Amino acid sequence: METIKIGLVSVSDRAFNGVYQDQGIPALKDWLTMALKNPFICIEKLIPDEQDLIEKVLMDLVDIQKCDLILTTGGTGPYPRDVTPDATLNIADRIIPGFGEQMRQVSLHFVPTAILSRQVGVIRGNCLILNLPGRPKAIAETLSGVKTVDGQIKVHGIFAAVPLCIDAIGGPYIETHHQISETFRPKNFD
């Protein structure tokens, strides 16, 4: 199996300044460890809510570090300092609106304020960039989706579409553990 290079970016003034310990990157790494069959390498960045810096970090992770996937956490709300989606859109080659729509759909099953989220999914070069929520529980819910009590999928998590998207943009072939995230590929794709 191919190794996946993943950028993990936690955007938080308070975590960056040591007011509290960042929980976004550990939550992302835990989820990826459970979900991915492929080996993966993470490049981790904890940065403040500064749009120029977010843009520079994302461009470096794509253009220089050659990440296949970047997951950001934090900075996606309506508050003035929440500029992660703005930075992400500024450096994007193409937008994939379905990722943001699905993230909000999943989150609406848990909180009515999900409609305030401005999360986006974009492509830059051969890299998929996704803005995730900041809370660890919400990160896992967004990636895995909503399941019934007996484990049936009620609402697909966004990661179900990530492997096919990365295939489409020339990235590595990603396989997942289906009990965490069922990867969808058309039947004649494999």
Please specify the SSE layout and strand pairing:
Elements: E1 4-11, H1 13-16, H2 24-35, E2 40-47, H3 51-64, E3 69-73, H4 84-90, E4 94-95, H5 97-108, E5 121-124, E6 127-132, H6 136-144, E7 145-147, E8 153-156, H7 162-168
Parallel strand pairs: 1-2, 1-3, 3-6
Antiparallel strand pairs: 4-5, 5-6, 7-8
Index terms:
6-stranded mixed sheet, Molybdenum Cofactor Biosythetic Enzyme, Chain A, 190 residues, alpha/beta, globular
The CATH topology is given as: Molybdenum Cofactor Biosythetic Enzyme, Chain A
* Unreliable runs: none
| Through-space gap between termini | 14 Å
Look at the structure and give the mean pLDDT.
95
SS content category? alpha/beta
* Quantity of strands, as a count: 8
Query: Percent helix among the residues?
Result: 25-40%
Per CATH, the class reads Alpha Beta
Order of helices and strands: EHHEHEHEHEEHEEH
Q: How are the strands ordered across the major sheet? A: 2-1-3-6-5-4
Percent range for β-strand residues: 15-25%
CATH superfamily: MoaB/Mog-like domain
Radius of gyration: 15 Å
Q: How many structural domains in the coordinates?
A: 1
The CATH architecture name reads 3-Layer(aba) Sandwich
Biggest beta sheet attributes: 6 strands, mixed
SS element count, helices: 7
**Coarse shape:** globular
Function: Catalyzes the adenylation of molybdopterin as part of the biosynthesis of the molybdenum-cofactor.
EC number: 2.7.7.75
Catalytic activity: molybdopterin + ATP + H(+) = adenylyl-molybdopterin + diphosphate
Protein name: Molybdopterin adenylyltransferase
